[in-house]
Amino acid sequence: MRYYISDLHFYHYQLNIQMDCRGFSDVEQMNAYMISQWNKRVKPKDEVVILGDFSLGTAEQTNEILNQLNGTLYLIEGNHDRYLKKSEFHKERFVWIKPYAEMKDNGRKVVLSHYPVFCYNGQYRRNKKGEPSTYMLYGHVHDTMDGQLVQQFCAITRETRRQSKYDEEPLPIPCNMINCFCMYSDYVPLTLDEWIRNEKQRRLNERCL
């Protein structure tokens, strides 16, 4: 099984009490809860792609966290992953560490970046049923005004019709961008299908407000 998650920010107490307002009493409580949530879902043979900003701790502190997490790990670099530059950090815990990647997930293409990519590779591709076959997974924006602006862009794009040489009539432009922010899943890594459902439910909830 493969899971995805972003912006865990282990050891980032200021983010806990300010931007995210996570509600933990200290970083020790926050770290312990996130580790517990992770290991309740992820088994040792599962894969997890972390979409950046994993830890604000030192190299040694980050090593200690990684040693407690189940799974085979992949890392998309985030702007806060400064431990990566330290020689004490154990990079071998990850299969690879990249700023950007593309993978296959059950016949679908997944574009992976810490930052949202608005015109992502494969955006217009559809399967034989006419369903979009590419998803863009990102993080970085958390649950902020920037995140709302990304959602506005996605809504405008989905409402825009375009006719290619393969189409008999103009079709809505696919825009399958999903923010895998850890608080949207209560710090639990989710599969691609779970993130798709999560995103649809959040959009529905926003329309109901």
Q: Biggest sheet: strands side by side, in what order?
A: 1-2-3-4
Helix content: 25-40%
Could you give the order of the helices and strands? EHHEHEEEEEHEEEH
Structural class of the secondary elements?
alpha/beta
The largest pleated sheet is described as: 4 strands, parallel
Describe the protein in words.
- The protein has 209 residues and is an alpha/beta fold.
- The chain has 5 helices and 10 strands, in the order βααβαβββββαβββα.
- It has a 4-stranded parallel β-sheet, with no helix packed on it. The protein has a 4-stranded mixed β-sheet with strand order 5-6-7-10, covered by helices on one side. A two-stranded antiparallel sheet has the order 8-9.
- The longest helix has 17 residues.
- The protein is globular, with a radius of gyration of 18 Å.
- The model has no long low-confidence stretch (mean pLDDT 94).
